[in-house]
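Figure S4 source data
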Amino acid sequence: MALDWGMKRPQKPKEPKLPHGVSLRKDRNRWVVRVGKKFTGREIIRKFFSSHEKALSYIAELKKKTAGELEKAKELGVSTLDMAEIRVALARISPTPLREVVDFWLERRPSSKAPSVEDAVEKLLDLKKTEGCGARHLKDMAEKYDFYFDGMEKESIGDFDRDRILQILSAKDGRGNNPSPSQRAKRRRYLNILFNDAVAQRWIKENPLDGIKAPRKVASQKVIFTPEQVASLLWTTQQIAPKMLASLAMKAFSGIRNEELFKIPWGDVGSTIIVQAGFSKTGRRRSITITPPLKGWLLLCKKGKKDELVFSARPERANRPAAWYAEMKTIAHAAGITPWPQNALRHLYGSYHLAWKKDEGLTSYEMGNSPSVVRSNYVDAVTEEDCAEFWRLLPAYVESLCDKDPLPDDAPEGTL
């Protein structure tokens, strides 16, 4: 039989449009309907049918169930794809009500575009100022952030991920040396303050330092002067630089910070030493006990007027720390103590005071520190014998120790 080329090939029945997340296929002698999670919002459903018609009938029933839902979606301007996502989301949060989930997210979502590092630091410093941080501490924070983000000030605070934070933590210091564990720990602490504030401000969702452990710090060996060395310093100061005696005695027997000492007037030195909040590192006023040795040495000093500063040496030098260390270099050389250890007199007081009082809280208060700092630096730093000898260093006792040992002939003349 000849083929009739004019005859049309029978058309395959057109498949109805299937709901989103529903598929239909033939598997050998049966038809398989797969209803996915985008439709159910939960588990996947598979149904098997002996005929194509029965499979389509089942799909039609599914469409009827969602018809009202789709009409509502149109009213809300939501697509069928969005409706499928909503089903999945509702299934995932079940049994928690949708309102609670939305409220939880709204509380934590970024509220606005993240500012630049420069602006974020400025806002942080303003916040710390309202919390009572002192001007010196705020300046110190600003200088640290300037160094950490050198050349990156205009970048968004939200652009710093874990890898970039690790680069900052391992960057060389100002002298071109690799940072020590202590420096890395300090960098991490200050960066954590900044990025925790960014999270609180909802500029970023999470702190990039989360999961970055602080490096283990190895406590450095503090140089603690012996009572004999302290006696030599006091005696030498009395002989060649008497105007330095009050500030040296206050440093040795009260542990006061340099920046605090240089701003204390004689009017704040009475039965105690008052450190005003304006120049305290912590931004809080504190009162330091005048110990018996300190009282004895202050009685030898000529007190100035109430508004006159206790440390008044080299008034022509605006840089007061530099003026103080210049004088102390001369005194230390004459007393046979070279080189001068960093923070020597503050560590001296912390060590001997804790050994004397055995009270970390009291020592930390007197020094304007935290008990944890006192524990990590001053526990068991001196012997009981040296502690007892140190607190005996009143003027008469020091004279009995040192007067028999005259100053060397080449001792430099004091400038005061």
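Figure S5 source data
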Amino acid sequence: MRLVPRPPGTRDHSAKGHSDTFADTISRMNTQDARISQALRRELERFDPSLPIESAHTPPSSWYLDPAFERLDRETVFSHNWIAVGRTEQVSKPGDYLAGHILGMPYFVLRQEGGALVAFHNACRHHATELLTGSGCLDHAGESPRITCPYHGWTYGSHGDLLSAPHMAGVENFDRASMGLRTIALETWQGYVFLNLDDDPSPRGPDLAELDTRLNQQFETSSLRHVMTRTYTVHCNWKVFVDNYLDGGYHVPVLHRGLAAGLDLDHYTTEIFKRFSIQSCKAKEGRLGDQALYAWVHPNLMLNRYGGILDVNRVMPVAVDRTDVIFDYFFDESSSQDQSFVSESVAQSESVQQEDKQVCESVQRGLRSPAYDRGRYAPRIENGEHHFHSLLAHDYRNGTNSLAL
């Protein structure tokens, strides 16, 4: 099912000899928009979060395939939730910056001269050029860092204020004070920078208090050291990857036999909280230590804690059928000095990621089959996945109301 209309201004050539006026085009677009809105709402309503898991169907395949849902992801899920964009240590010194995109929406994070972290929409107020790319440190020689547009040279201060706009003399009604960079809400948690594109978001801290407690009580965290980052491009919708992570270990003994050998899957549990879930089980010593904990934070953050290791996964949608998964590997101080242990651990993780990558891409292809529409949940296992879908439904429905779809 495709809910996205033909691009504006293009003709339907099936009607031979018909010549559109501008009014005809606008009228047809309005009709198409109304039909799309109705179709989108119908697809949203096909998942009912109020049903218990025993009665519920999974969301329809349109949630994973249709560009209309990619728009909903961008304008609801990833615009009104806290999204982890990088590690605080990447922006530790004045002038350090980190730039990126959240579903195509550019941002940058900057450490100011006084030590505060700030974030801005990464678009020059002149002609929208991205001001910064990648990561690095602005040359400020003891002064306040300045950001200069690489296109026409407009220059901004570290607080987003417009300092210089060359050749703009004589422009009528040009208010320099109103032409500064737009800020983005920023918080930090567990060594990560989070952004929220909402104009007035709720703080994220209270939602994660219990997860903080669990991580700090069950594991020693102060000695963890970041060792490496790897990015996996997976040709699937981002929600497919999250579903796979949240299936309560259902796939582990079938797909990850090497990993399964080190876990006590008979006592695998999933606990549901307001905005996150925790999957855990005993481990059988070795690299995994005596306990494994897999925490998911809505919508796209995963923390995998076992033995002296933490790996953090950020699931970043790129397109409706392409996702980048960024893995940050942390080891405790003693383990991080043992290169053979680090290499072996990362190699084992790499094997698991490749297995997950292959099965997620297979699911994405299978979703296109006319023989598949919706699935069912294993009620004693897949409650984490059901929780994720319920939070998605809440985000989508709130978003469609505010977007007037």
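The chain has two domains: 24-82+204-405, 84-188. The first strand starts at residue 83 and ends at 87.
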